[in-house]
Specification:
single chain; alpha/beta; Rossmann fold; GMP Synthetase, Chain A, domain 3; 2 domains; 23 helices
Amino acid sequence: MTQPQWEPDAGDVETARVTDFARFVGARTGREFADYHSLWEWSITDLAGFWGALWEYFELGDAPGTVLASSDMPGAQWFPGQLLNYVDQIARHARTDRPAIVYAGEQGGLTEISWAELLGRAASFAATLRELGVGPGDRVVGYLPNIPEAVIAFLGTAAIGAVWSACGQDYSAKAALDRLGQLEPAVLVTADGYHFGGKQHDKRDDIAALRAGLPTVRATVVVPRLGGAVPDALDWNAVAAPEGAELSTEPVGFAHPLWVLFSSGTTGLPKGIVHGHGGVLLEHLKAAALQSDIGRGDVFFWYTSPSWMMWNFQVAGLLVGATIVCYDGSPTFPHADSLFDLAARTGTTVLGTSPGYVLACIKAGVVPRRDHDLSALRTVGITGSSLPPSSALWLRDNVGERVQVNSISGGTDVVSAFLGGVRTVPVWPGELSVPFLGVAVDAWDESGRPVRGEVGELVITAPMPSMPVSFWNDPDGSRYRAAYFEMFPGVWRHGDWITVTDHGSIVVHGRSDSTLNRHGIRMGSADIYQAVEQLPEIAEALVIGAEQPDGGYWMPLFVTLAPGAELTDELKQRINATIRSEVSPRHVPDDIIAAPGIPHTRTGKKLEVPIKKLFQGADPDRVVERSAVDNPDLLTWYAAVPARKRAT
């Protein structure tokens, strides 16, 4: 068996927050938990007991009464009749000795936001929203970089019971409209631009297009970043002043919408995923405090964007009294190890990044422990895709032997993780140590039988409070059921391939569906097709994302050409420019390859999943029933693509 790359010492176990929680439960129930796995077993067999204990442990209010009124999936009913507000849990941590947020940009320097300023500006913004007639259930949307103002706008929105949603400014106006336009928002919060990769990005044209496409917006608030004027807009500093208003929160039901996150849009318009105040609050307290061991005194820095659920999870650091770091620049500018440099400058204790960034550091030959003071760093979190063993061992050798590598795997769907680490369990290279508490995770074969030591579908067999309240504009719940419960009725099928090892850890092999997952950013192929297939030279396109053995991610774009067209360098550049401008730079493919055709099902659906499986080494005769393919001979051509790539 592979040896652990990191093991907890006695001090780690004794001081871990999860150990304290186990003692708390034991004192109230008389139970004894020998280890983490026994605590996990209890947490998934006594759902009401576990989630009720979390409520009491984090002192969220009076005894909750009924915890789980119905355990149906979908449709579980948690904490009926309970009133709360997510923002109240953050307000209780207000303190003066440490900042709430540290902001860093590519221009250098650090800006600290105190707890008083954070809550004062959130209170002012909430008061402004009320003056604009915004109330519970109305939508406030952001088109913003990862700056403190995004956090403040979210908190002000949530405080009054309105619903938040956001896209990063790397998205084009059209891509943002495909998401935010569904919500018919009342207020738009944006910035005139941002800096990334050493360049200034003026977003005023995109803002104008966004406003034109959002007729329900009654006010636009602009954060001045580049000094450009936006007509008929409210100035952020006027509507979110640090003083002058008291933070007053609106009590809402447990399932009252907190925010809407969006799916990647693989099969069309992105799906709006609605999460409730209570479910997110409990899940994020658990994930931050018990699984990640984050609390007061910690500095929590996850490289992310408002488009990605890890932005929402980073805000959870405030729920447990930690300082969070907001950075809106490139992770590799001006140097490959820029994130480690920023971690050193901010005294980061928990740093989050992606396997792709680790691979970039390896290729650049950097040695962070030599070049930066990382003495405060306790944990490196990894998500977005699987971290290969070689990269995990590189982190041990080049970042710190006593730094825990906490790989996690979950999704926007639950705005958290199903699998990850904990401070009391060893870490094996390339593996995720444990299922998270309260997550009844299993690996099933296609017939619904649990499997061990072999690849199976990741399933969740019991409800979680942070499962979606609903999908936006899905009144009968049909799209929600189709997304997760079609393969195994009553059981959540997530779309990942996993293997449960003989020592209880989990290996995640990647997506079993067609979602693109590049460097931790989930993206939809539909956005790319919309952009590329409008070009006159392109007859059709197919984009595939496949995890590579070295931990990288290869995302080629295959195109069939219109009669008389040739795939010249000029056309490739134009394709990339179109994707960059109409979708985002992150959607630009690694390679553009002329293909003899695009295979489809008989009903016309592109064979994204089967082609991805071919690229991961599957047998062409096993990935799909050939009789169901409109041109089965194309499978042979696609199966040979990886070999041709290696030969070049």
